Protein: Acetyltransferase
Amino acid sequence: MTEKEKMLAGLPYDAWEETLLNDRMNAKAICHQFNLADPTKLDERMAILSELLCIKDKAHIEPNFFCDYGYNIEIGSNFYSNHNLTIVDVCKVTIGNNVLFGPHVMISTGTHPIDPIERQKTEFGASISIGNDVWLGGNVSVLPGVRIGNNCVIGAGSVVNRDIPDNSVAVGNPCRVIKSV
Structure:
């Protein structure tokens, strides 16, 4: 099994292996190009990211945008992200239709071993899924392995470390459901 196959399967892998390093550098170059593009040329700027991300239809991402690989990110129709979106996509990130992200949202599928010796050698991840008609407020962090259901609102500053069921309003650190929609 290659290091890339291990990564995509959520198994411990060596992130500094040549193929993965090259993939990350390619993603970072495209993000850099996007982040420096003329902000008044919306279609041209988003066309840069379409080389990297799987975008179903209409999407708008404000600069700055950062990701590790890009090819693990699937974005549905009518997506909007405010400034400074970071997606650590060592595993699949699926974002549904009609999703809104506030500024400074961080989605991270990547994590590291607790053991300090293992942490020096490997990392691993778990996929993240965000349903349709979801709104993540500013400064929300979504951690590895989380599923956020359809029709959810996640309050600003929340740290989502467990699944959030459909039709929920959830807030806090750790993020908890406070009511149903």
Remarks:
- The helical segments are 3-8, 18-36, 42-50, 116-121.
